[in-house]
Design brief:
heterotrimer, A alpha/beta (588), B alpha/beta (241), C mainly alpha (318), A: 588 residues, alpha/beta, 2 domains, B: 241 residues, Rossmann fold, 6-stranded mixed sheet, 39% helix
Chain lengths: 588, 241, 318
């Protein structure tokens, strides 16, 4: 569980209980059967939205084909009832299992895609199933009625009982969502959404988490579909696999508030009655008016409140923010001295590393080593290949040739998160945070990535924050941090994974003189704790202060390496930075 | 000499940081002015602000007496200012010839197009050879020539170049600098060059400015700057904190 | 006897595939401009097709302005005139809605604005579909031309096998090809076309050149809308349509564009042609409902195995 989880769960749980009771009270009082139907449908579409939110909201993998799972659930329940006389009470969970299996089948090939390719591929699946079903003759399947023991088959004469079941389903879905949000599952998904590469570099196996999200999402969506079939009593391919069904959870969640528990609920509570009531009254006079208004509502909300109603309202009304429950932090742990090998022994060795892009040799026969406890500065003019070098060491890019080992083990040929698990922490030039989450949550991701269990992870995160001097801001939302603090946060995130080696990419970029000094002091402290650091930087005066040795790259090759004072006087280095003519003129 | 381009007290914020502090420079008509500085000094930010990509927090930019602030970036090209941006930025999916034609987009340039094109081909014969090749398939040096040719295509009064030597091998960069110098001498185009390679750039110019972490720290003629050790220390981080 | 019927069926399927394929090709060029080049995910592309059909219908039949052209010329001229009408509509759409979630405004954001584009265009799609239902009603329509029930007979070619070229489809196909070639010439050789390509290629550099990139995007978007509408108008001559017909063609359009390769207009045409071809030929072996399913399989295969398509320039794979 994340820090503050208990408080949040209690708060959300109480809200959930209150809302549930209120909703059920309303549904008991309403007698008009048409409105009762609406009251039943709202939680069904809401839980469908919740399922979508897990994958596409928290996880950021935009899926436009969730009707696949919805439809599978619906048809499972229906066909099981028709052919095996299986009660929906069992049929719905069974549908969930099939939905989960479908998620694995769909996800395995499709997760190789990114961005709009992923969304389009997901779009294709339900439509494919739709056409196949039409071909197989399942144009319209009615659920058989049972005169005896209707309740055993989820058939009720009183519409309100359907609402009760639907609300029950929604409560289950919301509880699952709450658990996800408050666990490392949720943080991992949000990290992937925010910046998949950085998440991988922090040790998160994005492929696995995305698949888990899809499976959870698919299972929940299937239960929604199964119940929908029971409520409507007739199932057609279009009504459960159609394009508009796929659009439903997207619209409902985006309208209500993406990446939040309540978003789909708010969205469904507003849009479903809106659509249905338009359907009923003006819809009879002008068929189609409900679609027009629905479409207009969607457009307006995405322009006016792009994150959804929940966030817009929360941000506006609670501008003097209800402080996040202040994290109950363990007392600042004593300085954790990182004991690995003896200072001075070789930690990382790189030999003849090369990487080309087309005809361009970005990294060419690079060799150097880093000793335990050392700070190595990697410098060179713009475009020298420094970041590419890190990308190869980190696993973002493959090497064309050469060797790179960490404490004797090869670093090459591994996935990014595996390299992180070996003990390599990496920061990037562009820092992205979860702006709405407290600093501590932003940092603990690194600890989760290293595979630490919850308590140890929290401790590691707090320790890391203390190391960089942000202990007091642990509860502040990351969106309010200054640039310097963001960079320190990123450093803390890397430290939380308890690495042996830090690869820092332009940590000081864009900082003023004083801020630079502060960050340099932090780096010194980190090194004194026993950390080994390789840092790319352009701010030369800073590097002169902190680096033990330099490696100078130019056009992908190592130009010089050695003590800073010596390297800076090296003719070849001066030439690389200032040009050969400068050198010639100086000596003339 | 009247100042063609005048930058006064320019301050720019970029991504929440102050990238330029109170920077001033001026380029007189017919001059060749260079701005040098180490990486991260803010040279490109300066260039892009003059071009209209970034709005300044304070300060003014005037071209031939006319205030440029408030004029959109695209409209500045029509005033007679040509930009050769950082990293070449050629249109990769257009041919060399089409790239050059895009340079002549402003109406005023189209009238003399044939004459201008001949001149570009004289300066860079390889562009004539590769006229129908896709610009994305050219080498770095050739792309730089396309970018400069594109700048010349609008028959500009002021040609601005942002780090044309970046990523190019030294000999190729030398050729580029020669051509730029040729354009200045033979066509009388006013030039503002932003560069990292100090000597090559300063050698060709009438006046040089040195930018360091957003401040203009030195300026003078080539000889004065060459003799000043502060330039080297600025680049190699030896200045006192 | 059976063999000859088979041969005849195959030949007819092939020719149908080619003729319909060319019209699909034109349709895909429209999406190619919007999705392939500008990378805007447009969920309402099918509705543009539909608008083209209805525009042509109202121009050409009843009291329409072009009714005087009669049922032989009218439908095809109507299809062409539907283009500018929907072009104007597309420009307005872009100005007020699409530009807010695309282009320079969203470049560099987390997902390049795709989330917003998807939702806004979904909203537009719903409004157009249902608005169409309100305005046009739900009765299936067609732009009647007697040419739809006549055919050129070519043959006998092999044995007794005769190829029947439906006249309406053939003319529609020719018009489609001419339109596609015209667009290609405009994009390749005119200053406007080159500036559109430049703006799509590198908006920053285009701005430096003095090109108004917002305006260029608007024109490109509107052009994409108009071209698809023309294709719709042409299709209206041989099939019946209602306000929701767009849904059937969305996946065909995306398949075609992705198959042909993003970023290539020529590719989009070939992609559309191929998809149409596959669809018609699959009618030889597959029952009608499965023909569309076959398109999906093709689409998924392309996206998995060769996402850069036949002519594409960049792959965006994991």
């Amino acid at each position: 569980m994340r820090q503050g989880a208990k408080t949040r769960l209690r708060r959300d749980g109480i809200a959930l209980a209150v809302l549930t009771v209120a909703y059920l009270a309303v549904s008991v009082l309403v007698t008009n059967s048409y409105y009762q139907l609406i009251l039943t449908l709202v939680p069904i579409w809401a839980v469908f939205g919740v399922s979508w939110n897990i994958l596409s909201g928290y996880g950021g993998q935009l899926s436009f084909g969730h009707a696949s799972f919805f439809g599978i659930g619906a048809y499972t329940v229906t066909l099981a009832l028709v052919y095996w006389n299986l009660t929906p009470w069992i049929g719905i969970p069974f549908g969930a299992v099939l939905g989960a299996i479908a998620a694995i089948v769909i996800g395995t090939p499709t997760f190789r895609l990114r961005g709009h390719y992923f969304a389009l591929a997901m779009l294709a699946y339900p439509l494919f199933i739709l056409y196949v079903l039409q071909y197989l003759g399942f144009q319209e399947v009615s659920l058989p009625m049972h005169r005896e023991h209707p309740a055993a088959f989820l058939e009720f004469s009183d519409q309100r009982l359907y609402t009760l079941v639907a609300v029950g389903l929604l409560v289950c879905g919301l509880i699952i969502c709450m658990l996800v949000e408050n666990s490392r599952f949720g943080l991992a998904l949000m990290a992937i959404r925010q910046n998949e590469l950085a998440a991988e570099a922090a040790g998160i196996d994005s492929r696995r988490w995305k698949m888990r999200a899809l499976i959870t999402s698919g299972a929940i969506a299937a239960t929604a579909g199964g119940l929908y079939a029971c409520v409507l009593l007739v199932v057609t391919p279009d009504s459960v696999f159609g394009l508009l069904v796929s659009a439903q959870p997207v619209v409902v969640t985006l309208f209500g508030g993406v990446v939040s528990i309540w978003g789909p609920v708010i969205g469904a509570a507003i849009l479903v009655p809106l659509a249905e009531s338009l359907n009923a009254e003006p819809g009879n006079i002008i068929p189609g008016i409900q679609g027009v208004v629905y479409g207009a509502a969607i457009i307006l909300i995405i322009l006016a409140a792009p994150d959804g109603l929940y966030w817009t309202i929360r941000d506006r009304l609670f501008r003097r923010a209800l402080p996040e429950p202040a994290p109950v932090l363990p007392a600042t742990p004593a300085r954790q001295v990182v004991q690995h090998g003896t200072a001075g022994t070789e930690l990382m060795r790189v030999e003849n590393l090369s990487r080309s892009f087309g005809g361009l040799r970005a990294v060419s026969q690079v060799s150097f080593s880093v000793a335990e406890g050392e700070i190595l500065g990697i410098i060179g003019p713009n475009g020298a290949g420094k970041t590419t070098l890190f990308n190869v060491l980190n696993g973002v890019l493959t090497a064309d040739e050469g060797v790179a080992t960490l404490a004797g083990q090869s670093m090459l040929g591994r996935k990014v998160h595996k390299v992180c698990r070996m003990g390599v922490g990496r920061t990037f030039q562009v820092v992205r945070s979860f702006p709405r989450l407290p600093l501590l949550d932003n940092v603990v991701v690194g600890a989760y990535g290293a595979g630490l269990p919850d308590d140890a992870a929290l401790e590691a995160a707090v320790g890391a924050l203390a190391r960089v001097g942000l202990h007091r801001q642990a509860g502040s939302a990351a969106g309010q941090l200054t640039n310097k603090q963001l960079r320190l946060m990123e450093l803390a995130r890397a430290l939380a994974g308890r690495p042996r080696l830090l690869l820092l990419d332009e940590t000081l970029a864009g900082l003023g003189r004083d801020e630079c000094d502060e960050v340099l002091d932090v780096l010194q402290r980190v090194r004194e704790d026993g950390m080994t650091i390789a840092i790319i930087e352009h701010t030369m005066h800073a590097m002169m202060r902190i680096a033990d040795r330099f490696v100078v790259l130019d056009h992908g090759r190592v130009l010089a390496s050695g003590l800073p004072r010596e390297v800076v006087e090296d003719r070849a280095v001066i030439e690389a930075y200032l040009g050969s003519k400068w050198l010639a003129r100086q000596n003339a | 000499m009247r100042a063609m381009l005048e930058v006064r007290n320019l301050s720019v914020s970029y991504g929440g940081l102050r990238a330029l502090h109170d920077v001033s420079l001026s380029v007189a008509e017919g001059q060749f002015v260079t701005v040098v500085g180490p990486n991260g000094a803010g040279k490109s930010t300066l260039f892009k602000t003059i071009c209209g990509i970034f709005p300044p927090v304070a300060g003014t930019v005037t071209f031939r007496g006319e205030n440029l602030l408030g004029r959109s970036a695209a409209s500045r090209a029509h005033l007679g200012i040509a930009h050769v941006p950082e990293g070449r930025q050629v249109f990769k999916t257009l041919t060399v010839r089409e790239n050059l034609e895009m340079g002549a987009y402003p109406k005023a340039a189209r009238a003399q197009w044939h004459h201008t094109l001949e001149r570009i081909h004289t300066l860079f014969p390889i562009l004539a050879e590769r006229a129908t090749q896709l610009a994305g398939t050219l080498s770095g040096g050739e792309q730089q020539m396309v970018a400069i040719g594109r700048g010349l295509a609008s028959a500009p009064k002021l040609l601005m170049l942002d780090e044309p030597s970046m990523g190019l091998a030294p000999t190729v960069a030398d050729t580029i600098f020669e051509r730029i110098s040729q354009i200045h001498r033979e066509d009388g185009v006013t030039i503002l060059l932003v560069e990292q390679r100090v000597a090559e750039a300063l050698e060709l110019s009438d006046h040089g400015y040195v930018l360091e972490t957003g401040h203009m720290v030195l300026d003078g003629t080539y000889e004065t700057l060459l003799a000043d050790d502060r330039v080297r220390r600025s680049y190699l981080g030896l200045t006192a904190a | 006897m059976n063999a000859e019927v088979l041969v005849e069926n195959v030949l007819n399927a092939l020719t149908a595939g080619l003729t319909i394929g060319c019209i699909y090709g034109l349709m895909c060029i429209g999406l190619g401009l919007i999705f392939g080049i500008m990378r805007i995910v447009n969920f309402a592309q099918g509705e543009l097709l539909m608008l083209g059909m209805y525009a042509s219908l109202y121009l050409v039949t009843g009291g329409g302005v072009l009714a005087f052209l009669g049922p032989y010329f009218g439908p095809f001229v109507g299809a062409l005139c539907a283009g500018p009408i929907v072009f104007a509509g597309g420009a307005l759409l872009h100005k007020f809605l699409i530009s807010r979630v695309s282009g320079l405004r969203t470049a560099g954001s987390l997902d390049d604005g795709h989330f917003g584009q998807l939702i806004i265009t979904l909203g537009i799609s719903l409004i157009l579909q249902n608005g169409g239902l309100i305005l046009f009603g739900s009765t299936p329509e067609t732009v009647r031309t007697p040419l739809a029930s006549r055919a050129f007979e070519i043959g006998p070619i092999i044995g007794d096998a005769t190829v029947f070229l439906n006249k309406a489809r053939l003319i529609a196909c020719v018009v489609a090809i001419i339109t596609a070639i015209t667009l290609y010439l405009v994009l390749e050789y005119t200053r406007l076309g080159k500036s559109l390509r430049a703006a799509a290629d590198n908006p920053t550099a285009a701005t430096y050149m003095g090109i108004d990139v917002d305006r260029a995007y608007r024109i490109a978007f509107a052009l994409g809308c108009g071209i698809t509408a023309v294709a719709g108008g042409l299709m209206a001559t041989y099939l019946s349509f209602g306000p929701f017909i767009g849904l059937d063609y969305v996946i065909i359009m995306y398949s075609g564009v992705v198959l042909g390769g993003m970023g290539s207009i020529l590719g989009a045409f070939w992609g559309g042609l191929t998809v149409g071809f596959v669809q018609q030929c699959s009618s030889l072996v597959l029952p009608p409902q499965l023909q569309n399913a076959a398109i999906f399989v093709v689409f998924l295969l392309i996206v998995m195995l060769r996402p850069q398509g036949l002519f594409g320039r960049s792959a965006e794979r994991a």
